Model the fold of this input.
Amino acid sequence: MIIKGNIALSENGFVFNPATGDSYTINNTGKEVLMLIRDGKSIDQISGLLLGKYDVDKTTLERHLADFVNDLSVNNLLEE
Amino acid sequence: MEQQKVTVAVTGLNNIDSPGPGIPVIRGIRESKVFDVRIIGLAYEHLEPGIYMRDLVDKTYMIPYPSEGKDALFKRLLEIHTKEKLDVIIPNFDAELFSFIKLEKKLDDIGIKTYLPSIEQFEERNKSNLSAYGEKYGVHVPSSTEVYSTSDLNNILRSMNYPVMIKGKYYDAYAANSVEQAVNYFIRLSAKWGFPVIVQEFIRGTEVNVVALGDGKGNLIAAVPMRKQYITEKGKAWGGITIEDPSLMELARKIIFQTKWKGGMELELIRSTDHKLYLIEINPRIPAWVYLAVGAGQNIPEALLMLTLGMEVNPFTRYDVGKMFVRYSYDMIVDLELFSELTTTGEL
Done:
């Protein structure tokens, strides 16, 4: 899973896709996940990292992660 | 560097909710470091806001409507030229371009330069010829048909899926969701712009536009793509953002190269949901949002003026991606004396 190379992510969680002109705001957790994806981490690795950091059960976290990745894909932010 | 003094006449001062390109063109030229310009506005209506923007337009003259023909236009331009010694005219309306193209030689003979496409280039990209254009140049275009009567319209609608686009000859377009709506728009558009009215397949997707400048030899001098972010009821961009899309730039380069387009143009495109690019219209002039290109690093009005004056212009190689424009409206306070002077003398 690779974020498209030209996607801009700012410190305050503003995401801009220069190919389409679309922009999005994401919360701190979303930003953290996006940065981990950009660093080349797999979903399993991200899941492991977040489980150790936040008070959340594995099922809930994985469901939310899957939804988030699906949103990224639907919005053309991931390489096909 | 000493700035070159130049007197430039510009049309399209209707800086209203569906604005003409005149004011943004003037803003670009005014920002030039190459030229010291005197701007002469050419107006059709007494309430075109640009007439009263005295910091941008030095003097304005009323000119006859395109419907009065090119001879009436030339006569008036000659009167204005006698007073102002015009170097260049930049026409900005589709509806007046035919007359200006026809007058190109006569204007040149009296020392006024223009930089316009040929009549053949102008006609070829006409909305009603778009299907043939797409086929000739290998570009996806929505299917479209010219319609001259309501019975024609009813016939063609039987083989189309709704919504369909109903488009005026020069301006305006509406999406119709039923026969009744289509007929209503047909009557409205034919009364306003004449025949034909164009019925076009509706393409679902994202609207993107490109402003481009060709040198008449096949070279793309400038091009900036923009995605509309906020669209008015009339389909005009009230906000937009420059985007990075190599396929759009390639398409602009291809069209300018193949057609050897001379002057400014705007490509209106839809990126369909299956990621195909459809060309829905080619406007044969600089669009009203051109100041975004200036802000993104390509002063297209200045480049157009340089080309018009026979100066060499190196093609632009970059622009800022993610630069936005947000249009706004603004109420000017105008003294009645100014309005009365314009209406009685035809100049201000």
Q: What stands out?
A: Chain A touches chain B through seven residues (CB under 8 Å). Residues 8-74 of chain A form one domain.
